[in-house]
Design a protein that fits this description.
alpha+beta; six-stranded mixed beta sheet; globular; 23% helix; Immunoglobulin-like
Length: 195
């Protein structure tokens, strides 16, 4: 019986660590997701090395902003949100980066994208990413993942020879993403183990 309890606890801890590796990036850092013109999201994204398994968090005033994922570079450049892949509107939205490619996000409210509220997230396979630096990213709050519509993007995968810029904010240390359900499962398992 003790062996079974120890094995179950070990497997739950392994499961927790299996989904928690990756870096969480707050889009716009301390400025968040805004149309106020104080953030160049192109510059912000160019300093990051996004890899499969990372997450991006959009923090914004849900009464004044939203996040729309568009499919193509043409839609992104033209600020066209008429056929979104996903629309997020909670004010604290997490997007897990599940595959390599370019993913395009804009604010769908009139004039916001045109004012610069758009970001192109280039995601690499972990094997394609430059080695991480030794500095740590700023901590990010646990995000929600509420959104009104979600589809997988069919964004093109970058070529293995393409290199992303080096990131001073990427850490090799794991960061917790939105895995609160699994965390609760592990906590309940530990409590059951101790009982």
């Amino acid at each position: 019986m003790a062996f079974a309890k120890n094995s179950m606890l070990f497997l739950m801890v392994l499961a927790l660590f299996g989904v928690c590796f990756g870096t969480v990036y707050k889009v716009g850092d301390s400025n968040g997701w805004t149309d106020k013109g104080s953030v160049s999201y192109k510059d912000w994204a160019s300093t990051k090395n996004f890899v499969v398994g990372d997450a991006i968090v959009f923090e914004y005033n849900a009464k004044e902003q939203n996040v729309v994922q568009v499919k193509t570079l043409t839609e992104f450049n033209g600020c066209n949100s008429k056929a979104p892949l996903s629309t997020y509107n909670s004010g604290n939205d997490a997007v897990e980066l599940k595959k390599a490619g370019h993913f395009f996000y804009i604010c769908g409210l009139p004039g916001h994208c045109e004012a610069g509220q758009k970001v192109d997230i280039r995601v690499l396979e972990p094997s394609q990413a430059p080695s991480p630096s030794h500095s740590s990213p700023s901590p990010s709050p646990t995000p929600s993942s509420n959104h009104s519509h979600h589809n997988e993007s069919s964004a093109p995968v970058p070529s293995p020879s393409a290199k992303a810029p080096t990131s001073p904010n990427k850490s090799s240390a794991p960061s917790v993403k939105s895995s609160s359900g699994l965390f609760m499962l592990v906590v309940m398992g530990v409590l059951a183990y101790l009982a």
